[in-house]
Fold:
Amino acid sequence: MVSGTGRYEALLNSFLWLSDTETMTDDAIRGMRRAYAADITVIDDAIGRMRAALEEKGLLDNTWLIYTSDHGEMGGNHGLMSKCVLYQQAVRVPLIMRPPGGGPARIVDELVEHFDAAATVREVAGAPEIPESEARSLLGHVVGDGTGDRGGGPPPARSVSVSENWGFASFQTNEHKIVVDEDALTPCQLFNLIEDPDEDHDLLADPRAKTTVDQLMETCVRPFFSTAPARPHPSIFTG
Structure:
């Protein structure tokens, strides 16, 4: 149901226990997802009422609407509930931006990191960029014709996006995701997201994947951790 190596396996097993996986029948998962969809419907309705209130007061054409979340939900996938792991269902979050006056809908398929939303808000507000920040404003994707009429256009496409939790990190490219133990700097999982978007087949133990693992560790992981992780509290899994 889940697979991982090293200390990351301990985290996965802990969340399997927390999720009470033994009682997670198909009916239980359907019921949970039905309740979760109902929660989302409540949020959608509330956002619609806020939008209507802005329009009624004549403020909609002077207001940015940005919708996002801090984490996803496993929802029974891989036998897991909640968050805190690094599967796609937990790390992917919605990000919807509507500029004042609206405009044609666009979908940006490029890799985006969560703090890019904050960088976008800073640019909208006319605030200076944070020195040495790796966040990239997405304003060029949203305003004008989508090719960017401010700041020279959209930001350069990311080659990798990073998620971190509990002393572990995932590095996602357009093709692969590798999960690593941050302190040991060892790989724990590897998925080909094109051939296996549901992350059902961990390729880490496959000898044919060694070249991919070595390349991701060399080009993505080690450069990222040339600056040591900063954690407000020690991880119970990695110390």
